[in-house]
Amino acid sequence: MFCFREKEQGASRMSGITEEWKCYSDDDSLNYNIRIFDFGQKMKTWCFGRPVHSLPFEILQSKFSIDIYPNGCSKEQIRNISVCLNNCNEWDVMVDISISIGTMSFDEVYQLRSESSGGWPCLSSHKDLWNLLDNGDLEISFDIKLVWEISPERKTAKAEVTDI
Q1: Could you tell me where the DSSP H helices lie in 8-121?
Q2: Which of the residues in the chain have pLDDT under 70?
Q3: Which one, of 37, 108, 140, 123, lies nearest residue 77 by Cα?
Q4: N or C, which end of the chain is more exposed by having fewer CB within 10 Å?
Q5: What mean pLDDT, rounded, does the chain reach?
Q6: Coil, helix or strand for 100?
Q7: Is 122:72 a contact under the CB 8 Å cutoff?
Q8: Cβ burial, residue 36 (10 Å; 0-12/13-18/19+)
Q9: Using CA atoms in the order 40, 43, 49, 51, what is the torsion angle rounded to 10 degrees?
Q10: 56, 97, 156 from 92: Cα distances, Å
């Protein structure tokens, strides 16, 4: 197991908005943690559809990122937080993902087409989340297992299974 810890940086990002760290437990599994500073204030003031973007990360050959919407990803989700896992690849993937926020946890298996995303439009209401903030900050833990990927070097998942 090896871990990395980094603060968000980069020209297209809001400096200092998150602290992120990741631990690889296996080649195909990752624990990704995000602390979003002043999340309580973002829930109150950010309009719907405005995300906090994670840094990009990789599992095997596949690249991903996470978007967290403090006030929902659309008008219908206002006063809820939305979370999306983005498949940043030109190929399809299947992931088994678990999210933990304090005592709450959510699990799902997603098959994501190339350059698409999946997630929870209404992960939690602001009311339910408020008591889980740490001095206004939110810490979210993601356990992500890459079940399969169909990368350009691989013809199909079925062909690979047949070869075993």
Answers
A1: 39-45
A2: 1-15, 151-164
A3: 123
A4: C
A5: 87
A6: strand
A7: yes
A8: buried
A9: 0
A10: 17, 16, 10
